[in-house]
Design goal:
The chain is of the alpha/beta class. The chain has 13 helices and 21 strands. A hairpin with a 2-residue loop joins strand 1 and strand 2. Helix 1 runs parallel beside helix 5, helix 8 packs parallel to helix 9 and helix 12 runs parallel beside helix 13. The chain is globular, with a radius of gyration of 24 Å. It starts with a strand and ends with a strand. Bound molecules: S-adenosyl-L-homocysteine, iron/sulfur cluster (SF4) and FE3-S4 cluster. The site of S-adenosyl-L-homocysteine has 17 residues, from strand 15. FE3-S4 cluster (F3S) binds next to helix 2 and helix 6.
């Protein structure tokens, strides 16, 4: 296994453990690798590892890092949880995310009874909550390893320990200012990839647990980001998604501050890179400079995810979002003026403490005025430790559910109308896969993220194709290929 020009099998395990990162982790990868090889010889078969991911794009990217390390250690990847190593990368943004994890852990415990050498690991945002770890310690004794969001880079070290120690290993850090670069990554797609540009969040929206479980905002240096993107492109990637909880505040705390718009300009220069996406934008920090850069860019996709959360200025204030309904609408107007063909998507929460029917009507009003291409709608979930959880005017669940249903209906009705606007035009589509229902079709995405299905085969995966959109089927298009671009 050669990684970053280092052959893991050549590392001398009798040498002292390196103090520096990432060398220290390479050492532990080599150590775990020798342990896995031994076990595999004993069993006469390969060892399998399964990674399950909950939550957002940030977690999905973290899971690619976990899988990269598991691969370096010598595990074979499997989708089945009846494996030798199972890790859950958890999310805690809403209560039902937590409930799903507990539900599935019960099942894992049963698998482990049949396969006692199985290692069960948990990491991610849920683990940063002390009451969660307490519960796991008490009621889920079969778990081998628990770590959090700040020390994921030490995964190899923890695996090496879990392979040799019987007791439950728990290591949770409160925060970190460290960013460890150059660890292995196993990408899910060959042609597109997420790229972290920053970690953590400083916004403290009053309902949100993320700042508590992901820590303070830390930006990666532009050179590190650009180098990673160049490496990805040389490895076949044509589309990158720049990831951060609030990309619009990227670079503010760097030694040499850089704006997100400037970073985009640099990323755009990467030869061979065809498309750039990013997530998420906070409306309060979306600059005029960014709108200009996007409008001029050939590579930045025509899509902006701009979470609204509520249409009521009164509720927005209580949410600590730091913009008003009017400011949001005015921002949308400026964006649309610069890019009339842009697709806008959003996140909305209903049932925030103190939300009245009038407040809810304000949200519906914004939805009707902006006409989002799609919206993720959520019922407010009370997160222990956040300011909103302590507010005394919590909304009864049946009221929340009723507003949620009405909002969803409105959002879907509008989305259907909006989505059909490009029918009978030619659009560039990045082909992602063979169609799941019909193997004579391929499925890809337009610049504005809408799905298109059209005739083709697997040789097209990862290429950009010009496609004529023949028909809109609600939220996606059917099309026919027009001409092939170079592969
Ligand atoms: N950083 C991103 C969002 C991260 S969480 C942003 O600022 O937009 C993704 C979405 O989950 C949020 O946009 C919000 O709509 C939703 N969410 C967060 N906390 C929630 C809670 N306590 N209850 C319900 N939805 C919540
Ligand atoms: Fe949560 Fe707000 Fe930060 Fe988004 S910006 S992660 S909603 S605190
Ligand atoms: Fe969930 Fe953590 Fe993302 S709480 S939404 S996985 S940052």
């Amino acid at each position: 296994m050669i990684y970053q020009n280092i052959d893991l099998d050549q590392i001398d395990l009798n040498c002292p453990v390196p103090e520096e990162e990432p060398e220290r982790q390479y050492y532990y990868m080599a150590l775990a690798r020798s342990l896995v090889r031994e076990k595999s010889r004993e069993l006469g078969r390969p060892l399998y590892a399964c990674t399950q991911t909950f939550g957002c794009q940030m977690n999905a990217r973290d899971s690619e890092k976990l899988e990269g390390i598991l691969e370096a250690i010598g595990y074979e990847k499997t989708e089945s949880e009846k494996a030798d190593f199972v890790i859950y990368n958890t999310c805690t943004v809403r209560e039902n995310a937590n409930l799903r994890v507990y539900g599935r852990l019960g099942q894992l415990g049963k698998y482990k009874k049949k396969n006692p050498h199985m290692i069960i690991a948990l990491c991610g945002c849920m683990m940063q909550e002390p009451q969660v770890v307490e519960k796991l310690k008490k009621s889920y004794r079969f778990i081998n390893l628990i770590f959090g969001t700040h020390n994921l880079y030490r995964f190899a070290e923890y695996v090496a320990r879990a392979l040799t120690e019987d007791s439950m290993i728990i290591d949770i850090w409160k925060d970190t200012d460290q960013i460890v670069e150059n660890l292995p990554v196993d990408r899910k797609y060959s042609f597109k990839s997420g790229v972290n540009i920053m970690f953590g969040c400083n916004n403290f929206c009053s309902y949100c647990i993320v700042p508590y479980v992901r820590g303070r905002e830390r930006s990666r240096k532009p050179e590190e980001i650009l180098q990673e993107i160049r490496r990805l492109v040389s490895d076949g990637v044509v589309e990158v998604m720049l990831l951060g909880q609030n990309v619009n505040s990227y670079g503010k705390n760097l030694e040499q501050p850089v704006s997100f718009a400037k970073l985009l300009l640099e990323v755009e220069k990467t030869e061979g890179l065809k498309r750039i996406r990013f997530m998420t934008s906070h409306p309060k920090d979306l600059s005029e400079e960014l709108i200009e850069v996007m409008a001029k860019s050939k590579k930045v996709c025509r899509h902006l995810h701009l979470p609204l959360q509520s249409g009521s200025s009164r509720i927005l204030k209580r949410m600590n979002r730091r913009y008003t309904k009017e400011q949001y609408l005015e921002l949308v107007e400026r964006i649309r003026k610069a890019m009339p063909d842009i697709s806008l998507t959003t996140d909305i929460i209903v049932g925030f403490p103190g939300e009245t029917e009038e407040d809810f009507q304000e949200t519906l009003d914004v939805v009707r005025r902006v006409r989002f291409d799609s919206a993720f709608t959520f019922q407010y979930s009370r997160r222990t430790g956040t300011p909103a959880a302590a507010m005394d005017d919590q909304i009864p669940p049946e009221v929340v559910k009723d507003r949620f249903d009405r909002l969803l209906e409105e959002v879907q009705k509008i989305a259907k109308e909006v989505c059909s606007r490009d029918v009978h035009t030619v659009q560039e589509v990045l082909v992602e896969s063979i169609n799941e229902q019909d193997a004579s079709l391929v499925t890809g995405r337009m610049s504005n993220n809408t799905l298109v299905h059209f005739p083709g085969d697997s040789s097209l995966i990862g290429t950009l194709q010009k496609v004529y959109l023949t028909e809109c089927k609600g939220f996606y298009y059917m099309g026919t290929p027009v001409a092939t671009e170079e592969k």
